[in-house]
């Protein structure tokens, strides 16, 4: 595990779309999925794998998040995806809402698993790491980043 901060934060924005429907139904870990054009526009230095940071919905409420960028080898995906798990329980689907992400740290590379239980166990570990890392003051300050409220940073 390498949970160091990235050289600089990455900022991503998009509308939540329907994914493969595995997060909630099969894994019990719901995800917010971003459209392919957002994934295709990700910086090349953002390696495949699992990251943590902050997410806002509709430029309002801000939450801790963990995300995966990659091919999901366990499911043999043919398209790269970006799936965000927000560390909050929502009573409804989030489809169509704008999600803004400040990606701050790298947890691990994308991996394959021999069974779904191993995958779930590793995702829960990723969530725990993200939760702890975001409590640290050096990354916690990004929760107040103006980008999450809809103001574009000057260096983007």
From TrEMBL:
GO annotation terms (biological process): FMN biosynthetic process; riboflavin biosynthetic process
A Pfam family recorded for this sequence: Flavokinase
GN (gene name): LOC107264220
Keywords tagged on the record: ATP-binding, Flavoprotein, FMN, Nucleotide-binding, Transferase
Metabolic or biological pathway: Cofactor biosynthesis; FMN biosynthesis; FMN from riboflavin (ATP route): step 1/1
Chain ranges of the Riboflavin kinase domain: 5-135
Enzyme nomenclature, EC number: 2.7.1.26
EC main group: transferase
Listed name of the protein: riboflavin kinase
GO MF, one example: riboflavin kinase activity
Species: Cephus cinctus
A GO term from the CC aspect: mitochondrion
């Amino acid at each position: 595990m390498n949970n160091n901060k990235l050289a600089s934060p990455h900022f991503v924005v998009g509308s939540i779309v329907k994914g493969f429907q595995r997060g909630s139904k099969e894994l019990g870990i719901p995800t917010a999925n971003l459209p392919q054009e957002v994934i295709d526009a990700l910086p090349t230095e953002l390696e495949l794998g699992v990251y943590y940071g902050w997410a806002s919905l509709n430029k309002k409420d801000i939450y801790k998040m963990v995300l995966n960028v990659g091919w999901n080898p366990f499911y043999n995906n043919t398209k790269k995806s970006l799936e965000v798990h927000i560390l909050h329980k929502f009573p409804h689907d989030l489809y169509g809402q704008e999600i803004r992400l400040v990606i701050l740290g790298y947890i691990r590379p994308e991996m394959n698993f021999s069974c779904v239980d191993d995958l779930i166990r590793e995702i829960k570990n990723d969530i725990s790491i993200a939760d702890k890392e975001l409590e640290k003051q050096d990354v916690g300050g990004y929760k107040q980043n103006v980008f999450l409220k809809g103001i574009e940073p000057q260096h983007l």
